Amino acid sequence: MTKPSPLTAQWDWQLNARCRYTGSDLFFARQNEGLGERLRRERDAKEVCSQCPVRQRCRDHALTFAEPFGVWGGTTESDRRFQRASPSTDTPRMTGRSSVKLRVSPTHPRPGMKERRMPAVLP
Ligand code: SF4
């Protein structure tokens, strides 16, 4: 899918983004980022998103245009891949409140939650 046109009306929602002045380091992986570091960064980014007034619009954008990288609208790239792979989801809408019920990947901690280790599988 092609990206939305450069009309300001398509992007004005970003003016109210909570991450507007935080910099992108929290939302996008840096080179050679370790797994634990990534999970902590994504958890912290999701915490910022959880208080953002345009979270739903941001999430809709990321799902509609299949943003391949970063945390958008409280979803990580793997959350969105998981969402796209699920055959039972609705198509996200571009305006208004979304009807999309986001399924978050079970491997990602929710904001404010500590990472949980999966129990070891014994033979
Ligand atoms: S939902 Fe998160 S990534 Fe999207 S604009 Fe808000 S703070 Fe930024």
Account of the protein in words:
- The protein contains four helices and no strands.
- The chain is globular, with a radius of gyration of 15 Å.
- The protein has 123 residues and is an all-alpha fold.
- 32% of the residues lie in helices and 0% in strands.
- The model is unreliable at 90-99 (pLDDT under 50).
- It has a domain at 10-85.
- The relative contact order is 0.15.
- The structure holds iron/sulfur cluster (SF4).
- Iron/sulfur cluster is lined by residues 17-19, 27, 48-49, 52, 54-55, 58, 71-74.
- Residues 17-19, 27, 48-49, 52, 54-55, 58, 71-74 line the site of iron/sulfur cluster.
Question: Which terms would index this structure?
Answer:
mainly alpha; globular; 123 residues; 4 helices; single chain; 0% strand; binds iron/sulfur cluster; 32% helix
